[in-house]
Design goal:
By secondary structure, the chain is α+β, with helices and mostly antiparallel strands. It contains three helices and nine strands.
C-alpha cells in the first residue's frame, strides 16, 4: 500500500470531521416497533482533506496523485490523529484534487473528499478492561452469582 509522501505538506482536516456511512437496517414490525440490525461489521467513512501547498510541492502532489495513485483511484495510507492517537489509516480519493482547486497568493489549495476504508476503533478486549477497571474480567466472572438466574425449580 502506498504511503502519503513525507516530503509533501500534510493535509488539513476541516471542522466538519468524519462521517460514517449508515450501518443500520431498521424493519418496522406489526406492533409498530422497529427491529434494528447491523448491516456490516465495518463500514466506510468519509472526510474532506484540504491540501495547501506552495507551487513546487503542488506540482509534485499532482504528479503523485496522477502517477502513483492512478488519478486518485488507488488506496493509500495516511497517518491521522484519532481517539487512539496517530495511526495509519487507508484512504481513497473520491474526487480528483483538480475538481476543487484554488490558487491564492502563490499557494495552491485542493479540497478532496476521501473515503476511509475502516476507521480505527479500539479492540473489544481493551474496552472490557477499561469498563471493568480496577477489576479484571476473570474477577468479574468469579464474582457473578448465577444461582440468581439459574434455578432447578423445574425438577420439583
Amino acid at each position: 500500500m502506498m504511503m502519503y509522501p513525507s516530503n509533501l505538506p500534510y493535509p488539513q482536516f476541516p471542522e466538519q470531521g468524519i462521517k460514517q456511512q449508515p450501518n443500520r437496517i431498521s424493519s418496522e414490525m406489526s406492533t409498530g416497533r422497529t427491529r434494528d440490525r447491523r448491516r456490516h461489521i465495518t463500514v466506510p467513512a468519509e472526510e474532506t482533506l484540504v491540501f495547501r501547498m506552495p507551487k513546487d510541492k503542488a506540482a509534485a502532489f499532482l504528479g503523485w496523485v496522477e502517477h502513483a495513485l492512478n488519478g486518485g483511484i488507488r488506496w493509500f495510507q495516511l497517518n491521522q490523529r484519532t481517539e487512539l492517537g496517530v495511526v495509519p489509516i487507508q484512504i481513497k480519493m473520491k474526487s480528483h484534487p483538480l475538481e476543487n482547486a484554488k490558487s491564492k497568493g502563490g499557494r495552491f489549495f485542493y479540497s478532496v473528499k476521501c473515503e476511509i476504508r475502516q476507521y480505527p476503533i479500539q479492540s473489544e478486549a481493551i474496552t472490557v478492561g477499561q469498563i471493568l477497571a480496577p477489576h479484571t474480567l476473570d474477577e468479574f466472572v468469579e464474582g457473578v452469582d448465577m444461582s440468581r438466574y439459574y434455578t432447578e425449580s423445574w425438577k420439583q
